[in-house]
């Protein structure tokens, strides 16, 4: 198997890199570099810059506003985004609900939603996890009872990222309580302005409001908002989760963090030299870089076989998810080592971007919050423990 990029793919990388050099607003790029959160307006503005070029959802088929890029082109694009650095478009829109609608949606759903999803006219969030039903997603209890041409939904969703920004939510509900756990589940689209929805913030350890609780009290959703078939939402969810787990590897993001750690280590004095010259630090950097190269090779093998699986997730996406999340955490640990005690002096405005006056000497102030934030990546998208179970079943037959 040849895992080298072709001349055409190398030229494509140059094209992407040139575009990002000129297209990313300087203030936005600075925030991404420092690990600050973008405002809703900044994120929407950036995605619309991409969409004007046709690159907001380039993996989609051209008839739905995409470029029909190959899996390799998608990988190159995402890596260049991370390395620029530039914001990654909202995954809920571009990598989750968009591909789901293309694969399972009705013609009317595609025509209505896809252009609005790509342009961020609709910001989507994901209503999957529930209290006591996170990694064991099939044990969800939120119910949807048919009432004429509507479902009446009651229940609670948990850890609903960006629900406070969202216009719509794609969620799983139980429509047949007598069926087995993976059956009797339906995939629905929910307008977040519908009466009966309450969103409450969850402020995480980094002091940031990203996730939420969402309560659903007699919320009425049209039956026409089903994606796929009633009681067969698990098939749709598996398709979506395969995309989510593959994307969580974020090799380029870890590469960027390691590169930044090496650069910043040159500013940290140690004895007569700097931290970047210390053997122990150099060993840690080299160890992470070796593992990143191995993960990149695994990612390329998955990409090379991407046509094999169709709507069924490649089991190796669980490997990408597990090792990718571990290396994201290792890279933030490296940055914490560089920042040292200076990382203790942070407050939330530095994370959210509410305070704009970050000077050249303030680089350490966002490292600790982002270190704390990245602790969660080994849990989201199905915890790493669950991924071990998937691999044991699918690859080892246990």
Automatic annotation (TrEMBL):
It comes from the Bacteria. Its cofactor is FAD. Residues 125-219 form the Acyl-CoA oxidase/dehydrogenase middle domain. InterPro entries: Acyl-CoA_Oxase/DH_mid-dom, Acyl-CoA_Oxase/DH_mid-dom_sf, AcylCo_DH-like_C, AcylCo_DH/oxidase_C, AcylCoA_DH/ox_N, AcylCoA_DH/ox_N_sf, AcylCoA_DH/oxidase_NM_dom_sf, Mycobact_Acyl-CoA_DH. Residues 231-395 form the Acyl-CoA dehydrogenase/oxidase C-terminal domain. Keywords: FAD, Flavoprotein, Oxidoreductase. Residues 6-120 form the Acyl-CoA dehydrogenase/oxidase N-terminal domain. Pfam families: Acyl-CoA_dh_1, Acyl-CoA_dh_M, Acyl-CoA_dh_N. Belongs to the acyl-CoA dehydrogenase family. This is Acyl-CoA dehydrogenase family protein. It comes from Pseudomonas lurida.
């Amino acid at each position: 198997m040849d895992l080298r990029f072709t001349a055409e793919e190398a030229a494509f990388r140059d094209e992407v890199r040139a575009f990002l050099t000129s297209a990313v607003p300087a203030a936005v790029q600075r925030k991404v570099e420092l690990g600050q959160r973008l405002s809703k307006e900044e994120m929407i503005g950036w995605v619309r810059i991409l969409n004007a070029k046709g690159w907001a959802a380039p993996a989609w088929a051209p008839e739905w506003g995409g470029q029909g890029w190959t899996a390799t082109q998608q990988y190159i694009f995402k890596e260049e985004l991370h390395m620029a650095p530039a914001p990654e478009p909202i995954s809920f829109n571009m990598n989750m609900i968009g591909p789901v609608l293309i694969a399972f949606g009705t013609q009317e759903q595609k025509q209505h939603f896809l252009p609005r999803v790509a342009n961020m006219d609709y910001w989507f969030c994901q209503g999957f996890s529930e209290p006591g039903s996170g990694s064991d997603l099939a044990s969800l209890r939120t119910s949807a009872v048919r009432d004429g041409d509507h479902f009446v939904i009651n229940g609670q969703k948990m850890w609903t990222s960006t629900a406070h920004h969202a216009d719509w939510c794609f969620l799983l509900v139980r429509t047949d309580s007598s069926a087995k756990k993976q059956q009797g589940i339906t995939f629905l689209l929910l307008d977040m302005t519908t009466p009966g929805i309450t969103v409450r913030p969850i402020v995480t350890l980094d002091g940031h409001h990203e996730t939420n609780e969402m309560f659903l009290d007699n919320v009425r959703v049209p039956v026409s908002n089903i994606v796929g078939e009633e009681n067969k939402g698990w098939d749709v969810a598996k398709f979506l989760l395969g995309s989510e787990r593959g994307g969580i590897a974020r090799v380029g993001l870890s590469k960027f963090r390691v590169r930044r750690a090496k650069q910043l280590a040159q500013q940290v004095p140690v004895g007569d030299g700097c931290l970047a010259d210390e053997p122990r630090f150099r060993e840690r950097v080299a160890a992470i870089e070796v593992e990143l190269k191995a993960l990149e090779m695994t990612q390329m093998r998955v990409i090379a076989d991407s046509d094999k699986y169709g709507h069924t997730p490649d089991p190796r996406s669980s490997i990408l998810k597990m090792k990718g999340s571990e290396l994201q955490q290792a890279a933030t640990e490296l940055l914490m080592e560089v920042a040292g005690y200076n990382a203790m002096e942070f407050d939330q405005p530095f994370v959210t971007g509410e305070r704009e006056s970050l000077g050249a000497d303030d680089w350490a102030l966002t490292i600790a919050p982002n270190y704390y934030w990245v602790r969660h990546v080994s849990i989201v998208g199905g915890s790493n423990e669950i991924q071990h179970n998937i691999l044991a079943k699918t690859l080892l037959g246990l």
